[in-house]
Amino acid sequence: MLALQRLALALFTIGFAAWIFTLTLSQFRLSSATIDKVVKPEHRSVVHDRTAFMLNKTYTSNTAFIQDFRGAIAKYNEEMLGKKAWDKVIYENYVFEVTKDSSLGMLTGPGNLWLWFWLSMGLASVGGLLYGLAGLKRLPGIRNNFLYRHPATDRGWIAIILGIFLIGFYIALYFYPEYMTNWVLLVDPISRALNAGPASRWFLYGFLYTLVILVMGVRMMVNYRHSRYQQVRTLSVMFFQVSFAFLIPEIMQRLNQPYQDLKNIWPLDYTYFFDYKINEKLEAGSLGIFMLVWGIALSFVAVPVLTYFYGKRWYCSWVCGCGGLAETLGDPYRHLSDKSLKAWKFERVIVHSVLVFAVVMTGLVLYTYFSGQSTVLGFLDSYSVRSTYGFYIGSIFAGVVGTGFYPIMGNRVWCRFGCPLAAYLGLVQRFKSRFRVTTNGGQCISCGNCSAYCEMGIDVRAYAQRGQDIVRSSCVGCGICSAVCPRGVLNLEVGPVSSRKI
Question: Are strands 103-104 and 375-376 parallel, antiparallel or unpaired?
């Protein structure tokens, strides 16, 4: 087993290093054809004029290319702002598309793309799969040897490096995608095969997200193969991510239909009621109207009904992509979640505040859509509010912090402290649900496995010692506490609705 793990780590390291190295491979050359292809007609003459010094000049660094192009447009905009010629300012950001289309070198050849794809993402994926499959040589059951001592799982140097990489990746993805154009080019052939169009940064993200859930999902199934519930649950999140979140939306684009993750639910999908999204669906005809109704039905019918019968686990642990990533990629860090009363108090305030923010923002957006007025009560601007939500919650909280902090704060940072849908589901689960985790206190030996493995920061052992059912709005019903209990003390059950006080 040790030899197989070493081979797996070697393959993953080589693949990951090759993936990073691909960022340095291409050269860049701006052409008139690129400007005509990417830039809107009303801006082409200005861009041609201001970037004339870049034409047919070969850049060996994407940083230099980006700085020259961005600087040329920024200088023009400063001149227009100085003249108060607001209508002539270029507000569109063309940097990513221009940089991608201007890429030259090894990644642009017809055969080179696939070569580097398999040398990087391919090798890393094979290494990850082999490492997970190596666990089949162990006897079934949970192993937590050195969990709190290993530098990868106890906030050591490996965890810190991984956290920095994840945070940097999300910052680049959301705010500086032009520096990731080579990674986008790697998945360009896959994008064209699925949606008949070139890859975007969001296609790259969706592909990587799905790939990670699949690879780490295999590891999850191997590690928890003694529990049928965990295996079926992991297969479920893998299925929904591959089909509903990735393949179906991309294929729908190929059919000239609106892009829509059919399992995403408002208010997690905070853009669902934005004007351009509603218009896009209405213009798509009967299928678009079905998608609009489907989303509304999920939010206001499926959520309360299914949560009543199954608790929030039906979504958070079986369907949700955020939960799927947390349960697979984040599984090695689940024990890092803070179980203190202080953390619980912060959690309740923050997550419900985000929910209120999402509801208010959506109300403002719908008011603007139906009335045509962007200002409400004389001081609330719906466009500013939704932009603020998108930046601080949709980008910083959900992405940079929500995933980047896995190795530091545990794997459900976003689910615990930020997800408005989790807060909505939790309110239903707390006051009107038949789901609970039952305990048999007489069998508890206080080993602490349940509390250590609870990713939602619940001190499960304290409940088990008292023989008290666990009915918490934050519980996602993942069932790991039951899977790691050596005495069978904890069980996921449904029963009559009782008063919820916690």
Answer: unpaired
At which residue do the structure tokens 């995608």 appear? Answer: 177
CA-only gyration radius of the chain, Å: 25
Are 421 and 188 in contact by the 8 Å Cβ rule? The answer is no
- All structural domains of the chain, each given as residue ranges with its CATH number in brackets, are 27-104 (no CATH), 145-335 (no CATH), 337-421 (no CATH), 435-494 (3.30.70.20)
**Contact, 492 vs 437, CB < 8 A?**
yes
**Is the CA virtual torsion 338, 339, 341, 345 positive or negative?**
positive
Per-residue pLDDT for 498 more than 70? no
Whether the CB-CB separation of 263 and 319 falls below 8 Å is answered with yes
Give the strand pairing for 27-29 and 103-104. Answer: antiparallel
Closest listed residue to residue 255, CA positions, set 297, 196, 308: 196
Question: For residue 143, with 0-12 CB atoms within 10 Å meaning exposed, 13-18 middle and 19 or more buried, which class applies?
Answer: exposed
- Which token pair is 500? 């919820």
Respond yes or no on whether the N-terminal peptide bond of residue 140 is cis (omega within 30° of 0): no
Instruction: Give residue-wise pLDDT tens across range 84-112.
Output: 888 899 999 999 999 999 998 777 666 78
DSSP 23: G
User: What is the reported pLDDT for 501?
Assistant: 44
The full length of the chain comes to: 502
* Structure-block tokens of residue 482: 């039951």
**Burial grade of 154 (CB within 10 A; 0-12, 13-18, 19 or more):** middle
Cα angle 204, 205, 210; round to 5: 100
Q: Is 150 left (phi over 0), alpha (psi -120 to 50) or beta?
A: beta
Q: List, for residues 149-163, the tens digit of each pLDDT value.
A: 899 999 999 999 999
